[in-house]
Amino acid sequence: MKRVTIFVEGGAPKGHGKGTDLTRMREAFHTFLGLSDAVRIEICGSRKDAYDEFCNALKEEPGRTYLLLVDSEIPLQEGQSRWLHVLNYQQDQWKKPKEATNEQLYFMAQCVEAWLVAHPENMKEYYGEKLGNLPVTFNVEEISKTDLAEKLNRATEKTDKGKYSKTRHLPDILKNTDRSRVRDRAPHCKCLLDHLKSLGVCRD
């Protein structure tokens, strides 16, 4: 079985996150993706931190398989390579490391919250009856990051748990999100899950 590390954008900026918060986030991604114990999740803070850690690992530990998982931030162009997306994105302009392949970069499109709203019943279970209307677009990757944030804040602001918080709420919601539901509604999540399955480190 391959040894795999996934560098994930998320959590507090590097050096500022609480150990318990990082552990909860790692466990949430591990559970949601259905990963085996051969996979290590690294929650890196900013997307730039995730990219830098991924690049460094490629040079320092060539014996493992490394993946980079970040928000796409904006819509992805059909047929465009994933590395070209981050190169062209003005806030990134990341070059593909010479050691990397096209099968090592994956996206939460356009952000991780799209995965959450792909399973609205789980959101209802978490927030309760006061949860407002969530986006109903079948392909959740078509929802802009800004629009999704506004709708998610509006839908949760009157709940007993309060307005959606990535650090407080995301881990508990994500770990109970049905990945098969997300696979059906988020093509880039399906792409990631299919690759993990091909590596033999994903349960389904």
How would you describe this structure to a colleague?
By secondary structure, the chain is an alpha/beta fold. The chain has one domain. Helix content is 42%, strand content 10%. The chain is built from nine helices and four strands; from the N terminus they run E-H-E-H-E-H-E-H-H-H-H-H-H. It has helices at residues 19-32, 47-60, 82-88, 113-117, 120-127, 145-156, 170-174, 179-185, 187-199, and strands spanning 4-8, 39-43, 65-71, 105-108. The chain has a four-stranded parallel sheet, sandwiched between helices. Helix 1 links the parallel strand 1 (4-8) and strand 2 (39-43). Helix 8 (179-185) crosses helix 9. The chain is globular, with a radius of gyration of 16 Å. The two termini are 15 Å apart.
Secondary-structure map:
Layout: E1 4-8, H1 19-32, E2 39-43, H2 47-60, E3 65-71, H3 82-88, E4 105-108, H4 113-117, H5 120-127, H6 145-156, H7 170-174, H8 179-185, H9 187-199
Parallel strand pairs: 1-2, 1-3, 3-4
Helix pairs in contact: 8-9
Give keywords.
204 residues; alpha/beta; four-stranded parallel beta sheet; 9 helices; 4 strands; 42% helix; globular
Offer a concise description of the structure.
The chain is α/β, with parallel strands linked by helices and about 200 residues long. Helices cover about 40% and strands about 10% of the residues. Strands 2-1-3-4 form a 4-stranded parallel β-sheet, with helices on both faces.
